[in-house]
Design brief:
Layout (H helix, E strand, L loop, with lengths): L1 H9 L9 H6 L40 E2 L12 H28 L4 H9 L17 E2 L1 H12 L3 H20 L2 H7 L11 E4 L15 E4 L3 E11 L7 E8 L4 E7 L5 E5 L11 E11 L12 H33 L1 E2 L2 E2 L4 H29 L5 H26 L10 H8 L12
Parallel strand pairs: 1-2, 3-6, 4-6
Antiparallel strand pairs: 4-5, 5-9, 6-7, 8-9, 10-11
């Protein structure tokens, strides 16, 4: 059923038929195109109605994806499969995300039909291994960067909302035990998969993901979690959370918490930007979970690697949104006339647009270089930190310059640049939420 669902989502790309990816996922070759379907600003303390997560198979070993084949040369040319999937995401971003972004930003939530259409495109299936019924056969941080950036060209907030469940599925695939994968991953292949989110951020100045206030204390039958998490996407809708916490031995871990768990409360937390992601705050008050809730079991996970991959996700969002700014201001500057000529003829305007292009490409190359090292099995934490540092600084400048090029039009909501500026400011302060 899940494979048929993905077939409906990708069928509109008739040229996609015959590709190895299509053959692997058994897409319907006779289909010609995808048929697309068709306000509140906050919510009180509540949690989503939770489904019953049950193991559908007994597994001895967890399913892991193979790493991308290493390339001795520094070559960031995407594979045919990566290029096709990225193009699919870009068309979806332009046709569906961008037109829906204004209303979603005002409502502070992603429309249900957008999330469903993203699921029909197979975004969650590509995070679940083939042996568990998904479509993924290898880990590819480069592919994740390209696809995330493509979605962000439509709208960063909606891209986060679409990819938040994928981040949870990625974490379960990378580090989950066989029992955890068997219990939770099959749900992501259903026609209506669960909304899910990764919760790392905490509401305090200069937040450091390696210095968490959220605690996990060991008990006789599991753990007790206390603390607060901030800016969690899809918070009101999520049925499943991966919550980062500090254990008594000072190690960091992620804990799988279902929304129905006693002591877990959710409240609205609309911010300046990425409002369409439906950001909320989690409050954990003596939340009891079993020992099986620790992602990866007693061995846990590579927390530093998880944070680095999350930062690359935010870098990819910045790259995509910056590209959207560039593509919007160039035709505007060429068409907008002042003093009898296009404003692009003014050196100050032309240089500003050139700088947007230069910094965008620099951000893209640093991000892809870090992702390529991750795919090669090399150390990439330093490179991810460099990419994060550059995007945090330059993305805000790109957003500001986009507003400046439009002048008075950059200040009003008639044009999307003011929203992109607000969204790009989030890149320098957000941690977690995204995981390639």
């Amino acid at each position: 059923m899940a494979r048929d669902m993905q077939g409906r989502g990708l069928a509109w790309l008739n040229w996609f038929a015959g590709n190895k990816f299509v053959q692997r996922t058994k897409l319907d070759k006779s289909a010609e195109k995808l048929i697309y379907q068709g306000s509140k600003t906050g919510f009180k303390t509540a949690t989503a109605v939770n489904r019953a997560f049950k193991s559908v198979q007994n597994r001895v070993k967890p399913a892991r994806l193979d790493k991308s084949k290493p390339n001795d040369l520094f070559d960031l040319t995407p594979t045919d499969e990566q290029a096709m999937i990225t193009d699919t995401m870009l068309r979806f971003a332009e046709d569906r995300l961008r037109p829906a972004a204004y209303e979603a930003d005002n409502a502070c939530e992603a429309p249900a039909e957008i999330l469903q259409e993203a699921n029909e495109l197979g975004v969650t299936m590509m995070a679940v291994p083939e042996e568990l019924g998904g479509a993924a056969v290898e880990q590819s941080a480069v592919g994740g960067v390209l696809q995330t950036a493509a979605l962000a060209q439509g709208d960063m907030g909606l891209a986060i909302a679409c990819l938040a469940p994928v981040s949870v599925a990625n974490a379960l695939t990378r580090w989950g035990t066989a029992e955890q994968q068997a219990k939770y991953l099959p749900a992501f292949l259903e026609e209506a998969p669960p909304a899910a989110a990764l919760a790392v951020q905490e509401a305090r100045p200069l937040f450091d993901p390696f210095d968490l206030n959220t605690s996990a204390k060991l008990t006789s039958d599991g753990f007790v979690l206390n603390g607060e998490k901030s800016m969690v996407p899809l918070a009101a809708k999520a049925e499943l959370f991966l919550v980062a916490a500090r254990m008594e031995d000072q190690r960091h871990a992620l804990f799988i918490i279902e929304s129905s768990t006693k002591g877990l409360e959710v409240s609205a937390e609309p911010g300046m930007g990425v409002r369409a992601a439906g950001m909320g705050r989690l409050s954990l008050k003596n939340v009891n979970v079993g020992s099986h809730a620790q992602l990866g079991g007693a061995e846990g996970l590579d927390y530093a690697q998880m944070i680095a991959l999350s930062r690359l996700g935010w870098c990819a969002l910045a790259v995509g949104t910056s590209q959207a700014v560039q593509e919007y201001v160039i035709p505007y500057a060429n068409e907008r006339k002042a003093f009898g000529e296009p404003i692009s003829h003014r050196q100050a305007v032309a240089f500003m647009i050139a700088n947007i292009g230069i910094e965008s490409q620099g951000m893209r190359l640093l991000t892809l270089r870090a992702a390529a090292r991750a795919d090669q099995g090399k150390s990439f934490i330093r490179e991810a930190s460099l990419a994060r540092r550059m995007t945090a600084e330059k993305a805000v400048i790109i957003g500001n310059d986009g507003v400046q090029v439009l002048g008075g039009h950059g200040f009003v909501k008639e044009h999307p640049v003011e929203r992109w500026y607000r969204d790009l400011r989030a890149v320098g302060v957000m941690e977690g939420s995204m995981l390639l």
